[in-house]
Amino acid sequence: MTGLRESRSRLNAMSLYLEVISTANEAQRYDLPDGETIIGRQPDCNIVLPLTTVSRRHARVLRTGQYVAVEDLGSQNGTLKSGMPIEAKIKLEPGEEFQIDQFVLRLHRRSLSDTSPEPINDVPRVVVPGDSRETFARMSQIGGILAEFDVDT
């Protein structure tokens, strides 16, 4: 029975993840372990969002079993949920999302039938590629130019 309990425990530990989506529609998935996950621009954060508009330690995601909450850590520009600033710790359900600057962070529960690859982060600290608004604007312009010439992108 111990092996079954360990398998279920491992499944529960791996069943929740955060999907981090940038304005360039780049998405990365990160397992959400029990305990706290710190999000910010500081290199020692668990998830690094490398923009100057993101505070060093911007927000914290807390997980206990299947319970997940997010709170802003007094950041300069705030953490938003449904367009409103998060002022206290709030519960997150799978499918719900919150926003830090130009990044959308969405909570997911992996189902047993999910055949997509496992999140690639085996280390507790990851860096999400950032993009400045200027770079995003240039990419949009290039996309418009390519569309005029019927170039397959």
What does this protein look like?
The protein has 153 residues and is of the alpha+beta class. It has one domain: Tumour Suppressor Smad4 (Sandwich). The protein has helices spanning 2-14, 133-148; strands spanning 16-21, 27-31, 35-40, 47-48, 59-64, 67-72, 80-81, 84-85, 90-92, 97-100, 103-109, 126-127. The strands form three sheets. It has a six-stranded mixed β-sheet, with no helix packed on it. Strands 2-1-11-10 form a four-stranded antiparallel β-sheet. A two-stranded antiparallel sheet has the order 7-8. A hairpin with a 2-residue loop joins strand 5 (59-64) and strand 6. The longest helix has 16 residues, at 133-148. The protein is globular and about 35 Å long.
Overall 3D shape: globular
Amount of beta strand: 25-35%
CATH architecture: Sandwich
Using the coordinates above, name the CATH class.
Mainly Beta
The pLDDT mean sits at 79
Helix amount, in percent? 10-25%
Q: In CATH terms, what is the fold-level topology?
A: Tumour Suppressor Smad4
Strand order of the largest sheet: 9-6-5-3-4-12
Q: What is the radius of gyration?
A: 18 Å
Largest sheet entry: 6 strands, mixed
Helical run tally: 2
Alpha-carbon distance between the two ends: 53 Å
What's the number of structural domains? 1
Structure class: alpha+beta
Report the order of strands and helices.
HEEEEEEEEEEEEH
Low-pLDDT windows of residues? 1-13
Number of beta-strand segments:
12
